[in-house]
Each structure stands twice: as C-alpha cells, then as structure tokens.
Design brief:
28% helix; alpha/beta; TIM Barrel; 22% strand; 14 helices; 6-stranded antiparallel β-sheet
Length: 436
C-alpha cells in the first residue's frame, strides 16, 4: 500500500500516539440527506448471489430510482472466508467473479453499492497470525485477546496503540474502495446490542478516517441498538446508526418480515431522545423499511402508512428490506409518494407533543409559517386524534391551510386545531401552512 505524504504522516502520528484519527472539519459531508435504497437482509438473508443482487438493482432502476432510491446494499452472507491479510473475502460460489463486477453493474445503472462488515480483527486471523498488508506486522501484533472486538464476539479488539493497527484498517478500507463500495453497514458495534459487551468507539473513528483517506465518498452506517450515551460520538464519526434492534421478527412470525408489536411500535417510544443528534451527514436509523411485498410484510395497510410516516418524520434512512422484484402495487404507491419522501429528504426530525396516550401528535417546524404534522393512533381500536395549533406554537389569529400528504388533498383553512378519527395503528401526515 502506497500512501500520499499527508496520509502517511497521519498514519504515523496516529500509530505513535494511539489517538483516534479525525476528519478535517471542512471536509465535504457524505449523506447530506438520509440515504434511500435497499438492503438484502430482511427478504433474502444469506440467499444472495451476484445474479440476485443485480436483479434487485435492475428492479430499483426500473421502479424506484426516479424517486430517489439509489443504494443497493449487500448485507451478511457475502463472505465465507478471509483473504491472506485477515480481511473478509467473497464467497466464490455466490460471487464467482468477485464483488467489483456486481458494484460495476450497480454503478452502470446510476446507483450506489453497499456492503456489510463487523469491527475488530477476526479471531481466525489472529489464530493464523496473518500478515497485515504492506507492513511487517501480523494480526497478533494488534489484537487485544482479552476483549471482544464486537458485540457478536467473533473478533478481538484492535489495540490502536500498537504498530500495524491503523494500517490494518486502512488496508481494509482501500480494498473496499477498490471494489467500488459506496456504503458500509458495520454491524455488532458496541456499546450497543449483541451478545458481548464491546467498545468500538475507537474503531469507528479510525474507520471514518481510513475511508476518507481512500478518496472515495463512502457512507458509514452502524448497527445495531447503538448506545445512546455515545450518541455524540456516533454523530461525529459516522453517517448513521441504528437506534433499535432488528425490525425483523424472525422465528416469532414465520413467513413474515416483521410485526407491529413489539418490533415496529417500539420505535415510537425510543426515537424522541435521539432527535437532537440527527442532521446533515448523520442520521438516526429506524432500520429497514419493510414495505413493498404486501401481506408478507406482517403489517396491515394502515400500519404500513404509519411506519413510513414515522420513518419520514424522523428523517430516517429509507432502506427497503423487501424483494424489489415482487413489488406490491399498493406498497409501491406508498414508497413512491413524492410528498412523503420530501418530508424525509428535508432532513428535519420531528418530535411528539406528548406521549401520555396512544393517540399522539408529532411535528416539526419547517419554517416560520409551515409545519409538518403527523397524527398517530397507536391503540388497537379506532380513536380520535386531535391537535391544537397552539401546541405547535401558532398563536393569535393566525390561520393555516392544511394538506393531507398521503392523499394529496387540500383540506382547506382550519382554525384553532384539527381532529380526525383514525383506525387502529393508522396515521395521517399533514402540511400545515399559515396563510394569514
């Protein structure tokens, strides 16, 4: 590996001091808006191959790209061994020509390509004491074998005070960049969810710096259930982080992708505290959006509207977890609603007025005269949800016009406040604009 003089100096200084490398404050931002696209995990699990991923990319190009969906992300299951330098290598049966040709296919469609990793130095690399590319060092030189390197427990912690540690991460980042990777989902990052306690704060800082040194814009997303106590750190060094565990319900709902309770509805409880940390370049991730395949999702039509309403109002990444080659017409109408997508793309997370009941109103101020307002009925029976304009800060005799963004319907001038009867688990998304 040959580095520029500046990059080499950064590597040397970081190696000597052990301090986390930091990106320059004036560096152009990645993820100025929440990313939109697709991830392979929910619908395919490890049943992936070059042909399957390319088919998903073709479907996105045909049906969704014009609406802003652009990332085609390969999740777990693409790698089945390490290369000679302790880095994940592709499964040759699934990807006989490697990863780069698949990324090329995605890029030729005008889309972006993502891949899946976990932090730490793999235990297999340490056991074999594999060399670190471009250095005289080996995996055992950088591994702290007393501490897990991630919350899954399949790696050892990288000790960044040791020579070779920064170079290992850099060689990994350079390899992925050479394949054409535009997005990395880094899973089992701690502090957070998983089987083992782990602290990957140093890893994400080093990965951010290493990715920046490749010269390629690569989005870094963290998973899952990231610790709230480290929220400012995640926002500083990464482009997004999962605030919750997996949205998939796995064996608890055979044949379905997710379920309203407890998988989905828990996000309404957990999202508000994260709101201050989201903004251009770094987003709160509600997890995959399980919309697109109709009844297989495990959500009623009303629940699907509520889910996308919350994801959009939280400026969450909109990464579909469904099979794009089997798009359901009703779901397609939801995930291509330009007015709802615009709420997400504006990048301003909203917050609840109150969570004292299951009839909740969430909102954000878009400017001095315009608000985005979501009304949710999280109860199991129909109920009235109401909002007073004073709760939004609209005082005096100011009168707003109201528009339903899901139905593209202008509801006219509405004085003082608004109320609606919503079915169980249903939602309404409004634009409230003061006209006089």
């Amino acid at each position: 590996m040959r580095l520029t003089p500046i990059a080499a100096a950064i590597v040397l200084a970081t190696t000597l001091t052990g301090a986390p490398a930091q990106a320059a404050p004036d560096q152009p931002r990645i993820a100025d808006q929440p990313p939109m696209g697709w991830s392979s995990w929910s619908s395919l699990r490890g049943n992936i191959s070059a042909a399957i991923i390319e088919a998903q990319a073709d479907a996105m190009h045909a049906h969704l790209q014009q609406f802003g969906y652009r990332y085609v992300n390969v999740d777990a299951g693409w790698s089945d061994h390490l290369d000679g330098y302790g880095r994940d290598a592709w499964n040759a049966t699934k990807f006989p020509d490697g990863i780069a040709p698949v990324a090329d296919h995605v890029h030729q469609l005008g889309l972006r390509f993502g891949i899946y990793l976990v932090p730490g130095v793999p235990k297999a690399a340490v056991e074999a004491n594999l060399p670190i590319f471009g250095t005289p060092y080996h995996a055992q030189d950088i591994a702290d074998t007393t501490t897990p390197g991630n919350t899954l427990g399949d790696a050892w912690r990288i000790d960044f005070t040791k020579p070779g540690a920064v170079e290992y991460v850099q060689s990994y980042a350079d390899l992925l960049a050479s394949w054409g990777v535009d997005y990395i989902k880094m899973d089992f990052v701690g502090p957070g969810g998983g089987r083992n306690p782990a602290d990957n704060t140093a890893d994400v800082a080093q990965w951010r710096a290493a990715l920046d040194r490749t010269g390629r814009d690569i989005h870094l997303e963290l998973s899952n259930s990231l610790s709230f106590t480290q929220a400012a750190w995640w926002a500083r060094y990464t482009n997004g982080w999962r605030i919750e565990g997996d949205v998939e319900c796995y064996s608890k709902c055979p044949g379905l992708l997710t379920s309203w309770s407890p998988r989905v509805v828990q996000r309404w409880t957990d999202a508000p505290k994260w709101v201050p940390f989201a903004g251009p370049g770094h987003w709160n991730d509600m997890d995959s959006l399980e919309l697109g395949n109709g009844a297989r999702e495990g959500l009623t039509p009303d629940e699907r509207v509520s889910v996308l309403t919350l994801w959009a109002l939280q400026a969450s990444p909109l990464l579909l977890g469904t099979d794009l080659t089997r798009l359901d017409p009703y779901d397609l109408s939801l995930i291509t609603n330009r007015e709802v997508i615009a709420v997400d793309r504006a990048g301003r997370p909203g917050h609840p007025i109150s969570q004292a009941t299951k009839q909740q109103v969430w909102f954000r101020a878009d400017d001095a005269d315009t608000y985005t307002v979501a009304l949710f009925n999280l109860a199991d029976t129909a109920a009235t949800v109401s909002v007073s304009w004073t709760d939004l800060g609209i005082v005096g005799r100011r009168v707003p016009a109201v528009r339903d963004l899901w139905t593209h319907t202008d509801l006219g001038l509405v004085r003082q406040g608004y109320r609606v009867v919503l079915a169980p688990h249903a939602a309404q998304l409004l634009r409230v604009h003061i006209v006089f």
